[in-house]
Amino acid sequence: YMLTRKIYISYERFFVFFIPPIQKPIRGELVLITGAGHGIGRQLALEFAILGARVICLDVNEGSNKAVILTLHVRGYEAYGIKCNIGDRNEIRNMVKQVKAEYGFVSIIVNNAAVMPVGGLMDITDEDILETFNVNILSHFWIIKEFLPDMVERKRGHVVAISSMCGVSGVADMATYCSTKFAIRGLMEAAAEEVRMMGLEDRIFFTTAFPFMWTQVWHRTRITDFRGCSLP
């Protein structure tokens, strides 16, 4: 089965390369984005808003998140902001309750937020390892676990995960970060298989992106703000 699936995926990717799929309309959809206060998350919030989606921006940094919300409001887009430390399971529970009570059904999830500690395996602290796993991968589990049942019930939805090229190839001094990004692929593929077994593979979708950016991190500086992305 695994060999057949790999062959199928290879043919599928070859086909998509030459004949890109038609973009689905997302006007009016409610999109939740983690790490929306800066970098990739901020740019995604703008792009989804431009396409007509209602956007919920999550970020642990309330100030930067409010700035993004203000920018979207000034441009006439519908957006909401919630301060949430997605590395904390209880904060995720509280956030989910608020979202469902105030905004309704979330049809698109974008798990984007991440931290990127830099350090050799023998040097990195236990605290950094735990924080990285809590934010970069366990939050994906908790958020999907909270929102996927509603998607299954309504038979529609889309889960997006922002991984990294570090989830494809390991990088020295970034073992912790790479480990979490490799784990994202496993989670997303397994979740997609579970949905396929429910017969909902054409109703609920899973997309994983593997971006690469040149940032100060390559100069051995701890950084979580991808300044290469900015609002136009």
Automatic annotation (TrEMBL):
Keyword vocabulary terms for this entry: Oxidoreductase
UniProt keyword annotation of Lyase present: no
Identification of the protein by name: Uncharacterized protein
Protein family membership: Belongs to the short-chain dehydrogenases/reductases (SDR) family.
One GO molecular-function entry: oxidoreductase activity, acting on the CH-OH group of donors, NAD or NADP as acceptor
One GO cellular component, as annotated: lipid droplet
Family matches, as Pfam families: adh_short
InterPro entries per record: NAD(P)-bd_dom_sf, Sc_DH/Rdtase_CS, SDR_fam
Coiled-coil zones: none
